[in-house]
Structures are given as C-alpha cells and as structure tokens.
Amino acid sequence: MTALRPDLAAIAEMIPDGARVLDVGCGDGALLEHLAATKRVDGRGIELSQQNVNACVARGLPVMQGDADTDLGEYPSAAFDVAILSQTIQATRSPRDVLGHLLRIGRRTVISLPNFGHWKVRTSLVLRGRMPRTQALNYQWYDTPNIHLCTIADFVALARETESVIERALALDGQGRTREMRAESWGPNILADGAIFLLRGK
C-alpha cells in the first residue's frame, strides 16, 4: 500500500471506523484501499475510467464502472454512512444533481474540489487573458475533463441551495496540506488551492 496523497489522508480522517462507504470517482482505489486497511470500512467504488477500474480490481476492491451523472439515481437512500466525491464534482455534467444524490445516498457526504477562485488563477486570467493552468487544474482549456469549474464560495452557495449542512470545512494548499476554515469566510476563497467539505442533508 502506497502513501496517500495529503488531501485523501484528510478525507480518510473524516471517515468513522467500520463505516459503509461509497467512493464515487474513486480513481485507482488508493483511498478505498487505505480505508479498508486502516478503518475496516465496507467500501464500494464507482469509476468512469476502465483503466482505473482495472487498477481497483487488481487491489481486490469492489468497484464498478459507472458514471456519477447517470448511475447514482439507482442507489437507495441512506444506503451508505458516507458518500465521497473527491476532485470530481467539477467534471460532472450536473453538479447540483450529483450532490443531491450523494446527500440522499450517504448519511454524510465528503466533497473535495479545486478552487478556481485562487488568487494565482485570478491573476493569470487577468494578466495573460488565457485560461490558467495550475497544479490542481493542469489542463489546456480544450482538453480538460473539468466542465463546471467553481470557487469555494460557489460551492458553499450550492450547498445552501441544496439545503445541506456543512459540518466541517478544510482549506487545501498546493501540496495538499489542510487547515480548518470557516466555509463562508472570504480568505480561503482567495488563498486556498482547494477545499474539503463534510456535509449532511437537513
């Protein structure tokens, strides 16, 4: 088992021992594998990429190929203790619908996302007049899988619109290190490279 990325380690700390977990967009399964080994979770994964599904299966993880935009409606309500969507909401076609399903499927939901409101992104766009590339958003505009880029403030507004409660919020820096933040504070919206939110439905 390889060391987790710092942002995934921060998500892992939010997951209770023995929880039933659905990791949507689970990538190569690194987080699920870690949770199974260290927290005895009953974990399931959904992943769009066949290559990543194969990597998960090679780790012995129960992962299905699926699409968050089309497949989450098939899951019953409150089927999992925690539903996770890590660095993926910006790549979904309908982020509001996906978040609504996650809040319905999981008793708690963990969302992490890159912050398009970071000052370096703002400055690059203003001074260069071109779509910025950052460590977290390292794609050219024409080949990016990210189709709904947002800021931390945008996500907090979406959480409010979906009538969810933000129980905890962490700001991420460029190295994936975290610190607690107030979700509605303006500072992280300018200074943080990304964020992690723990939410529940009302």
Largest sheet, if any?
8 strands, mixed
Q: Summarize the helix and strand pattern as letters.
A: HEHEHEHEHEHHEEHE
Major beta sheet, strand line-up: 3-2-1-4-5-8-6-7
Q: Outline the low-pLDDT stretches.
A: none
The value of Rg in angstroms is: 16 Å
User: Would you count the extended β strands for me?
Assistant: 8
Helix content: 25-40%
- Shape, principal axes of CA atoms: globular
> Could you tell me the mean pLDDT?
94
- Indicate the proportion of strand residues: 15-25%
Which structural class is indicated by helix and strand composition? alpha/beta
**Count of helical segments?**
8
Keywords:
globular, alpha/beta
Structural account:
The model has no long low-confidence stretch (mean pLDDT 94). Helix 5 links the parallel strand 4 and strand 5. An eight-stranded mixed sheet has the order 3-2-1-4-5-8-6-7, sandwiched between helices. With 202 residues, it is α/β, with parallel strands linked by helices.
Concise summary:
By secondary structure, the chain is an alpha/beta fold. The chain has eight helices and eight strands; from the N terminus they run αβαβαβαβαβααββαβ. It has an eight-stranded mixed β-sheet with strand order 3-2-1-4-5-8-6-7, with helices on both faces.
Task: Give the SSE layout.
Elements lengths: L5 H9 L5 E5 L5 H10 L2 E6 L2 H9 L4 E3 L2 H4 L8 E7 L8 H11 E9 L4 H10 L23 H10 L2 E9 L5 E3 L5 H6 L2 E8 L1
Parallel strand pairs: 1-2, 1-4, 2-3, 4-5
Antiparallel strand pairs: 5-8, 6-7, 6-8
